[in-house]
Design a protein that fits this description.
The complex is a heterodimer of chains A (about 120) and B (about 120). Chain A is mostly beta strands and about 120 residues long. Chain A is built from no helices and eleven strands.
Chain lengths: ~120, ~120
């Protein structure tokens, strides 16, 4: 158990819909990262939040957005869903936000299926 | 841009055999971390090791060992006396100091250990 909690574990929805994925980082970790694992693109970095502020963006679509709340949990919002958005979405957390920020621990992922 | 190549898509071995998973990386940065993660059939990403670019010492942890060679930009992973429970997808990843924890993952190697 990494200590990173993601909900829901599985989600099935239809094209055009909107979903929200939730992540609670490990106790004491200020950084939250979102990654997407798809058959086409493999594992890729989406976005990083540190203590409530966006730190970096990767290959995140404009239809996707995220935020980190004062209690440090984070949500990833996916809208106008397309079939290609079907993937395993991972949240990860780490203690700090810089280069020596400690290990990166991943949650179990939220598997999104868009029909 | 950085890149991680895991040329072995799938490997099958018989239990108790040794197996080496290859990882080759590309980056112009001189300061970086290299990671290995294990993804068992259940789907979570399990942290195995992190090495920084300043430390080329090989590391051994039980049946696992890692060989880091900057001269060939490789960070190979060996499992000694493999077991069925080692069956999983293994990912190598690169993390630049400059972009902390925005990991660039390889495409993964599916390891199957047969009884």
């Amino acid at each position: 158990d990494s200590g990173v909690t993601q909900t829901p574990k599985h989600l099935i929805t239809a094209t055009g819909q909107r979903v929200t994925l939730r992540c609670s980082p490990r106790s004491g970790d200020l950084s939250v990262y979102w990654y997407q694992q798809s058959l086409d693109q493999g594992l890729q970095f989406l976005i990083h939040y540190y203590n409530g502020e966006e730190r970096a963006k990767g290959n995140i679509l404009e239809r996707f957005s995220a935020q980190q709340f004062p209690d440090l949990h984070s949500e990833l919002n996916l809208s106008s869903l397309e079939l290609g958005d079907s993937a395993l979405y991972f949240c990860a957390s780490s203690e700090g936000g810089g280069a020596n920020t400690g290990e990166l621990f991943f949650g179990e992922g939220s598997r999104l299926t868009v029909l | 841009a950085q890149k991680v190549t895991q040329a072995q898509t799938e490997i099958s071995v018989v239990e108790k055999e040794d197996v080496t998973l290859d990882c080759v990386y590309e980056t112009r940065d001189t300061t970086y971390y290299l990671f290995w993660y294990k993804q068992p059939p259940s789907g979570e990403l399990v942290f195995l090791i992190r090495r920084n670019s300043f430390d080329e010492q090989n590391e051994i942890s039980g049946r696992y060992s890692w060989n880091f060679q900057k001269s060939t930009s490789s960070f190979n992973f060996t499992i000694t006396a493999s077991q069925v429970v080692d069956s999983a997808v293994y990912f190598c990843a690169l993390d630049l100091f400059a972009s902390a924890r925005q990991l660039t993952f390889g495409s993964g190697t599916q390891l199957t250990v047969l009884p």
